[in-house]
Specification:
heterodimer; A: mainly alpha; Fumarate Reductase Cytochrome B subunit; 0% strand; B: 127 residues; mainly alpha; Cytochrome C3
Chain lengths: 219, 127
């Protein structure tokens, strides 16, 4: 178990983070290169002001007409995404491991709060799963890969939850937790999870076009 | 019937104190009462069994003494609490914070020797 743990917590974690950051950088560079080659006119109306204005409105719950039209989805998606980011980053156990490896620490959430946020993420994943199956307009644009992606995102939280509470098979659950987290990190740049990077860029583009060209608002 | 009461009381007291002694004898965890709000259950640690398994003979392998940042080779500190030197929050370049000191003493040694628990829940076991 020592060998497995040290391998997964060491080199595998390194590889996962390198692919995650390297992959995101690659996608960003590739996006900019493609735009420059194929649609360079976009740069003529890209605007920091209109871009940020749009991002701001869409970052506020109920800050857009579309958010207000779908209140349940709005609440779930905000809760899901905030908890999805905050729980792992500010989890005490993660901060401890990082400090042991790098000597740098940061404030962390009480375990009980992170535990609650994990439940929110898992509940959100179930909501999105049911939504994909039940809502015809969502089912229409759903393919098998969407279910796989949802599973990839939910897995680190489900395994982390079981490991934290030590419900069963603790050691294997922790290994599964680390490996599933690494799979998620690696998947982000190369799947639709890349919306982590692209969503603000798309928003900035839309905001710029609506604000600077159409003279309209996009929220 | 009345005379039975003190007898039962005496037996109960005897049992209680025996239990207390027994509990002291096989203390199974590192007390975590120095933490204001401990986030995890106290770490499992059976002192004598651990040291026998790990082949630790010298007290100061764990109960070390540092003076001016230097390890004092032939002194030991088993008469003190870890928290006497290691505060919950580390100050500047003083001794490591209490939690870091515990993790450094236990987990680091386990990693270096390839033996003993290294995953959070292996020590911080929920009962």
């Amino acid at each position: 178990m020592h060998t497995i743990y040290e391998w997964v917590a060491g080199p595998l974690t390194w590889i996962a983070f390198l692919i995650f950051f390297g992959g995101l950088l690659y996608r960003l560079v590739r996006l900019v290169t493609l735009v420059r080659r194929k649609e360079p006119f976009i740069f003529t109306y890209m605007s920091l002001k209109y871009g940020l204005r749009s991002i701001l409105h869409w970052s506020l719950p109920f800050g857009t007409v579309n958010w207000r039209l779908h209140p349940v989805l709005t609440i779930v998606t905000f809760a899901f995404h905030i908890c999805l980011l905050a729980a792992p980053i500010f989890l005490m156990a993660h901060a401890i491991l990082f400090k042991e490896a790098w000597g740098v620490g940061w404030p962390s959430l009480p375990d009980a709060v992170a535990d609650g946020m994990t439940v929110v993420v898992i509940a959100g994943a179930i909501f999105f799963l049911v939504r994909r199956i039940v809502r015809p307009e969502v089912r229409f644009v759903t393919s098998a890969s969407d279910y796989v992606l949802l599973a990839i995102v939910a897995a680190p939280f489900v395994t982390g939850f079981i490991a934290y509470h030590q419900f069963f098979a603790y050691r294997w659950m922790l290994v599964a937790h680390m490996v599933s987290g690494q799979i998620m990190l690696v998947a982000i740049p190369f799947t639709r999870l890349a919306h982590m990077l692209f969503a603000p860029l798309t928003r900035a583009y839309m905001g710029s076009e609506f604000g600077g060209v159409r003279r309209a608002i996009d929220w | 019937m009345k005379s039975f009461v003190p007898v039962w009381l005496a037996i109960a007291l005897a049992l209680l104190s025996a239990a207390a002694l027994k509990a002291q004898e096989d203390m199974r965890t590192v007390p975590n009462d120095a933490f204001v709000s401990p986030q995890r259950p106290p770490s499992v640690f059976v002192h004598d069994a651990h040291n026998e398994a790990a082949g630790i003979d010298e007290c100061n392998q764990c109960h070390h003494v540092y003076r001016d940042g230097e390890l004092v080779a032939d002194e030991s500190s088993e008469d003190q609490r870890c928290s006497d030197c290691h505060a919950e929050e580390a100050a500047g370049d003083g001794p490591p914070a209490l939690m870091d000191a515990f993790h450094g003493n236990c987990k680091q040694c386990h990693l270096e020797n390839g033996k003993g628990p290294v995953m959070c829940g292996e020590c911080h076991q929920r009962q």
